Amino acid sequence: MNRRHFVKQTSLATTAILLSKYTAAWGSESNFPVVRIPQGERNFTSKAVEKLIAEIKGSIGNKELAWMFENCFPNTLDTTVDFSIVDGKPDTYVITGDIDAMWLRDSSAQVWPYLPLCKEDEDLKQLIKGVINRQTQCILKDPYANAFYKNEKKKSEWHSDHTTMQHGIHERKWEIDSLCYPIRLAHGYWKQTGDTSPFDDQWADAMRLVIKTFKEQQRVDSKGPYSFMRKTEFATDTQPMGGYGYPVRPNGLICSAFRPSDDATIYPYLVPSNFFAFASLGQMLTLVGAAKQNFDTDSIDTLMNQIATGLDNDAKIKNGKFGQMFAYEVNGYGSRNLMDDANVPSLLSLSYLIPAMHTDETYLNTRKYILSNENPFFYKGKAGEGVGGPHVGADYIWPISITMRGLTSTDDDEIKKCLNMLQHSHAGTGFMHESFHKDDAAKYTRPWFAWANTLFGEFIWKVYREKPQLLNS
Q: Which one of 3.20.20.370, 2.40.30.20, 1.20.1250.20, 1.50.10.10 gives the CATH number of domain 193-376?
């Protein structure tokens, strides 16, 4: 099922009914219902994760945030992972939640916050190693696909898309970040564990395919082998110009047919995703060295230099109100799309993905723009404020954007503001959603969206480590 076609909205009355179902389970101490899936029905249990949940629940004064952390942080493990051993290797299939398919982006982001706990939980380490192994197989199957099935023979509901579809692929929307996230996860896993065993010859072949795909989509000599069209009423679900998108002038940047939201780009040079590619290639360079793989590292260096040149020459604009800032999309001809989208990589998330950006003046100016009414997808209402996007329509704020704002902030008041908005956005469910209406958090989409849940948990844990006093009110 495509994300766009799974939109769940509820009302205040529905929320009241939901809460009443759990009244008998309310604890006299917490006054919050038990909404986490029962222990015997969980897909995977980590001793280290449970220990951390108990520690944070017992330590912070804001009991609603503690309850939400208990529900959200383990949601990926509780409900979305399927672990097994295949050909002697760990193998982990990870669905997004309410859609039974594995996105390379979502699966990476969903397990990312658990990485620091691998040192004290061998089973958790094997689970994440299994995600890396499965992602390797997905990339080898088709580097242009964004989402896959566990069943290699399953036929997608999108089999009629005008692109090269195979069985076992859920969707074939080319998104740069789909190949970046597995590299980020692999690098993070290696940094936490020192284990290079997942980075075998098959993984090296997958990384060579990443390089090849990135080069093809620089479109220096041709449009490349990828095109995509879909018969749809949604313009954001297909690409014009025969499926190749609007023209670009080659400048070193990589074309992305779709955004991390799975929405079509307007100008194919998607700036935040090119920044992500640059950072991921640097991580790939480190990993091939650590794994002692026979690899053409000069090709990585060359590609990184080309991307950096393109970003430096074409991604920046001079804004009369905010100064020098980054555009969201460009085409190499001078056209620029000024906006931001909630899905990561976004412009807002650049300092989350690339920590050095925290002090970059152009990024800081861009951040001010994103969180202002100048950004056409920044919404502010009675229920909160934050970034949305075209994917679910106007006036819907994505909790991921509020969480990302908190994760990229160093200001106590701003972090507290984000915590407060998230605390009041769950509509009584105890979980994050894909989005909620700016004036009524009880109107929301996707009640089971594991990425939003786990990212919220990552934010709470970060605040707990660095500024625990902010969790006491």
A: 1.50.10.10
